[in-house]
Amino acid sequence: MGSMDAYEQVQKGPLKLKGGPELGVTKRKKKKDRDKAKFLQTMGKIQKNQEEELRHYLDKRTLAQVAFEKVQEKRQMERVLKKASITHKQRVEDFNRHLDTLSEHYDIPKVSWTK
After folding, report:
1. What does pTM read for this prediction?
2. Residue 66 lies in a domain
3. pLDDT in tens, 53-112
4. Distance of CA 86 to CAs 79, 96, 98, Å?
5. Is residue 51 part of a domain?
């Protein structure tokens, strides 16, 4: 039992730091309303910063770049509308018609030499 005597001096419970409670370290309860207000305020600032960055980005583009991007968006919208206007069934039918028009050259060649 001599080994158990060595552990009698062990301090149980939380650690006590120098200075103790005189340091004045106490936890405060957060007020949710104040936190929400700060959160909304920071979100507003973030949005303003993003808008400013967007304006700053737009200001650096030349007229040709602006026109190019407009044309690209227009073409992309046309592609989307074209794809959306045709159903899958119609697409399959069109593909089958296309395959029917191809010559026999595109068929799988015979492998057998005997026939």
Report:
1. 0.32
2. yes
3. 777 666 777 889 889 999 999 999 999 988 888 889 999 999 999 988 887 766 677 777
4. 11, 15, 16
5. yes
